[in-house]
Amino acid sequence: MNGAVETAARTAWGEARGEGLRGMQAVLNVIGNRAARPGWWGRDIASVCTAEAQFSCWNMQDPNRAALLAVTQADPQFRQASALAAQLCRQQLSDLTAGADHYYDWRGAKPVWARKQFFTKTIGHHAFYRIGLKG
Questions:
Q1: Predicted TM-score (pTM) above 0.90
Q2: Of the residues 25, 53, 77, 89, which has the fewest C-beta atoms closer than 10 A?
Q3: Which residues are CB-contacts of 11 (< 8 A; sequence separation ≥ 6)?
């Protein structure tokens, strides 16, 4: 597995393993949409995934961090995340999010950044948005 595939797979698994296949794919879609529009959030798949304070599973204090660093292909959900991440890196992963580049878990408080952004859809427990676009 190359670095971009592995980093994307670990991010999808760390962020959405409880959301099933569609949830992990949607997180990967956000990563791909960000990488397609380089900016403050990163310039490629790996840098988008590990940009500071963007995907909480990579935060040093997040309990998911140790788990995502330790998970192996023995975990069925990580195998799924790896297969989806490989499709992302080959630009063969369909976008379930309608171009979203951000999301949050709607079970918590709506973040300030989401209040004036374009909502695209909800997939599982995540609400997806495109930043800077009007509805």
A1: yes
A2: 53
A3: 27, 28, 31, 49, 55, 57, 58, 68
